[in-house]
Specification:
Blueprint lengths: L1 E8 L27 H6 L12 E2 L3 E5 L3 H10 L6 E5 L5 H13 L6 E6 L3 E2 L2 H16 L3 E6 L10 E7 L5 E7 L4 H10 L2 E11 H11 L1 H12 L2 E3 L2 E3 L2 H5 L6 H9 L3 E2 L2 E2 L1 E6 L3 E2 L4 H7 L8 E3 L2 E4 L5 E4 L4 E4 L4 E6 L2 E6 L6 H10 L10 E4 L2 E9 L2 E8 L7 E3 L3 E9 L2 E5 L2 E5 L4 E4 L5 E4 L6 E9 L8 E4 L13
Parallel strand pairs: 1-2, 1-3, 1-5, 3-4, 4-12, 7-15, 17-19, 18-20, 19-21
Antiparallel strand pairs: 5-10, 6-16, 7-10, 8-9, 8-10, 9-15, 11-12, 13-14, 21-22, 23-24, 24-25, 25-32, 26-33, 27-30, 27-32, 28-29, 28-31
Helix pairs in contact: 3-6, 3-7, 3-9, 6-7
């Protein structure tokens, strides 16, 4: 059998603000160790697994088009080239995402087992997870739809639950029912019964089985995805869907679209949907409290990350990303510092973070969308300072990369080379600059910055003019296929 990991990477993670932003959501963050959550998910099932009867294929990623370059870059950093990255022009939840993956998997006539994994989950025990997947492969190979139920450790009210039915085979249980997030008393009853599992959001089935079930349960989703995929275009590792067709696709989750409808169904005298118990220290890290729960804590019960000093502080999460953070006389607190925003709340108040982000967005605050450090396909830039008619940026260009050929109507730019070598095009001139050299780009002049070297190029850019917005870009040529009419990506 072929096993195809499908990474669902379209979430936003607003409950983890201010680390998670619209243009840099939580799956792109390194919350534990050096790898981001996307990178950890991509390595969860890979070619290092030696199963004699199962070939683990390179993963297929389904994600938002807005994150395409950083998604590809993060996979490149771990030496993993995906089977493809399917780009969704708009978010439509997990059922359409899995349908697109199944259509792509079937396009060459094969019918692999799909393991659908959200890119923003944490698995603490990798070997236990792989053992559960191996057990599920036998069930899925027989045509069943498998879900993984995380063994509950607390009466959690933030998760949906799965009620297990009668034992099936090989440690599986029939799925009797999917239930919504319960209140405290109901969650405690679920925990005491021993028959309920947290809904992990991880699923496994043959590609053909999923297409048959989504076609039966939600033909509108299946048909819209089929039209969008049939109208897609391949661009290197990217699959670009027909945007108009996909925009008409209804939004729904795997749970609502299919799983709830087939719970309790029989196929050939056995349950069609089965749940495999997953005892692998699973968490969806849906909020700051979950990060404190699973993080390594010191003797005072504190989870600390970054340049942090605490005194008389207990059972708290404190994270610093750019400066010293000191906490004195606190308990059960959440403190998260980033260069442009700081969150301070009690652990009991974390359920208000999503509402807070909505209020900030309604007020037009840019901190909900971007960090000061903004990633681009050629590297990244960081806003250092700004004021009336000026802005200072630190720009890092990857080796061999280049910004688009462009010009601005409202601003001029000064470039100072801090590290590396720059190839500069300014009007009709092209020349090289090295460390400590500088140049001036007049307003209205076509220009381009490139890194011809083998090391990252770092420059300081000083902008001056009447308007300094990122949409003041007229792009003439771009190596990354971006819109040459200007789309706020330098």
């Amino acid at each position: 059998m072929d096993l195809l990991p499908v990474i669902l990477s379209g979430g936003s993670g607003t409950r983890l603000w201010p680390l998670s932003r619209e243009q840099h959501p939580k799956q792109l963050l390194a919350l534990f160790g050096d790898r981001t959550m996307l990178q950890a998910t991509a390595r969860r099932l890979d070619g290092s697994i030696d199963w004699p009867d199962i070939d683990v294929l390179t993963p297929l990623v389904v994600g938002n088009e807005e994150y395409r370059f950083i998604t590809a870059e993060q996979l490149r950093q771990i030496d993993l080239r995906p089977r493809a990255i399917i780009l969704e022009p708009v978010g439509r939840n997990t059922a359409p995402a899995l349908t697109l993956a199944a259509l792509a998997a079937r396009a060459d006539g094969n019918d692999p087992l799909l393991v659908a994994m959200p890119a923003d989950h944490v698995i603490g025990d990798l070997e236990a997870f792989r053992a559960a997947v191996r057990s599920a492969a036998d069930q899925a190979g027989d045509g069943k739809v498998v879900t993984f139920g995380a063994a509950p450790t607390t009466a959690e009210t933030g998760y949906g639950y799965i009620r297990a039915g009668e034992p099936s085979s090989d440690g599986a249980f029939g799925v009797a029912e999917f239930v919504e997030k319960p209140d405290r008393a109901t969650a405690e009853a679920y925990l005491a019964s021993g028959r309920y599992y947290w809904n992990s959001g991880i699923f496994m089935m043959k590609a053909s089985v999923w297409l048959a079930q989504i076609g039966k349960c939600r033909p509108d989703i299946f048909q819209a995805c089929e039209r969008a995929f049939n109208g897609s275009k391949r661009d290197n590792d990217f699959i670009r869907l027909d945007p108009d067709c996909f925009a008409k696709c209804p939004s729904d989750s795997i749970d609502y679209a299919v799983m709830e409808k087939i719970a309790g169904e029989q196929a050939h005298g056995e349950p069609l949907a089965v749940v495999i118990p997953l005892e692998a220290s699973w968490s969806d890290v849906g909020a700051w409290g979950a990060l404190w729960d699973i993080g390594e804590k010191n003797s005072d019960g504190n989870f600390l990350d970054g340049d942090v000093l605490t005194m008389d502080t207990r059972d708290s999460l404190v994270m610093s990303k750019s400066r010293l953070v000191c906490c004195v006389g606190m308990s059960d607190a959440i403190v998260v510092e980033t260069p442009d925003a700081v969150l301070v709340t009690s652990r009991d108040g974390i359920h208000h973070v999503k509402e807070l982000v909505s209020n900030l967005k309604a007020a037009g605050r840019s901190e909900t969308a971007v960090h000061r450090q903004v990633h681009r396909p050629w590297g990244h830039y960081e806003s250092i300072n700004d004021g009336s008619r000026f802005q200072v940026k630190r720009i890092v260009v990857n080796p061999g990369a280049s910004l688009s050929a462009q010009m601005h109507y409202h601003r001029a730019e000064h470039w100072i080379i801090v590290k590396g070598t720059a190839r500069v095009t300014c009007g009709e001139q092209e020349f090289l600059l090295s460390e400590n050299q500088s140049t001036y780009i007049p307003l209205g002049t076509t220009h381009r910055l490139a890194n011809p070297g083998r090391l990252p190029l770092e420059i300081i850019e000083v902008q001056s003019g009447a308007y300094l917005g990122e949409d003041d870009i007229v792009r003439f040529h771009d190596a990354y296929g971006r819109d040459t009419t200007g789309d706020s990506q330098k």
